[in-house]
Amino acid sequence: MRLEAALVFWGAAAASFGIPDLLIHQQRVDQETSRDDDNQLLAPYLAQALDDDGRVRPVVWSMTDPVFRQWAETDSILVEAEQPDERTVLRVASRRRIEYVVFVSAVKEGPTLRPRGRLFRAGRLVWKFEPKAGLPQGPELAAPMNRADMDRLIAEANRRLTDGGAIAVTVNGATDWDLTSRTIAQTWVRQFNEGPLKSLPARAKTPEAPVAETPRGAEIQPSSPDWQTLAASFVAEGKLQQALAFLRDRVDADPSDPKARMALSDLYHRLGQPMEAARSAALAAEFARNPETWVVSAQRWLESGDAAQAQAALAKAVALGASPDLVRPHQITLHLLTGQMAEAEVQLRGLAPGSYPLQRALVEVLVSKPSLGPEAAAALEKRPLSVEEYSLFVLCLERSLMELTPKIRDLVPRARLEPNSSALLNEAEDSKVRLSALSSLVQAVVPPERHQESHESRRLALILLSQSSMVVQAFVRSNDPDQAEEAALSLSEAARIAQAVREAYAAESRRAN
To answer: Which residues partner with 107 through β-bridges?
Structure first.
């Protein structure tokens, strides 16, 4: 049963049979040391598991939940408090006479998932799962190859989680985060039913009532050979969350089907979840075992920013006989991601002229001249970059700025010690030329819609940095104290704006995801 349809149907049933509500709030764990967002959503998985059990009516604190959305129409605090504290959630639950509230979170630690959960009844803590400090991560569990094995998997997970550890459900040695989350959710529901929900009767499901918005072909089940028809109809009608729930069910029905896993990867990509898209594509490649699927897996890893995994996937594609023309574009992107500019330039010579304009412009500015010629600028201005292309552009730009900015800043004190040094004059000229080229590159790039605001600030920051480099060059020539002060002020302002741009870009990325 798809989650949204299930919640609507059981919402009506709850009114008739007095099923108590259970409010689920997903909490975020801040990972200051992690580059990627390692938080994993558990709320929708727990809602589905509770809904399947039937003892309570689960409602997720999210505008994507139809019941919660109905509540929000008459309660403004639900809209205003998208990330409320626990006190607010419990106060709302008390006001709406919601008997049960559960707070959940989960953080990815390497290949495993470490979950946390606490269940309250009438404001009193009645169940909790907290990982024990210093406890090693639990061993990985092999994923079931059919649904009949799910009970065995849940029982094993229950033993692992009871000790306060972390688990991973794996397919061919790679963590399946979707199946891991489902396993945790079903394990917790089993613990609820043995404890705080024990007195509530389990209710067998009646056939799902028809849903008016269900697209044509909805009678197709995940196990049907025509599952692709329904998945495509959900996507075509913009019902991406329904498509996601359906495709997850399809993967559960046949975990070894590479087409289902690749369809799930494509949907994660469309939803702006690059890491999940990469993991699904990697599992698809493991089952498909053909070079083309490994190339797609490499592309997804590149989009997620994981160069090591991308390189491994490309190596497998080559080993299986992938054509050089299929592999080379991704090898170029991999070289750019890892700062191997000379290697990227060599690979780029093998591609047709005019293809891959961003990669060509990056090589031209960062390796060859450095400058941005009119042909490269015109090619970039033809269309907005994709989100993945823009991410590559930002990475290469920031890498260059991290190298250049300290050099420019150090020129002032060095010039005081070595006035009229020809070596320093050459360094100042080189820095000015390189910054001017980077500024031209930023001017030519058309950002994706989500990053237009930060890109405009980025453009202004590059102009200011370029002007600062000219002031520094003038000081190296003249050793004029006034120019030294002006250079220090302009560099400080440029650094301030650059940091603001980074924060704005990160915020735009989080909002989109």
So the answer is: 39, 114
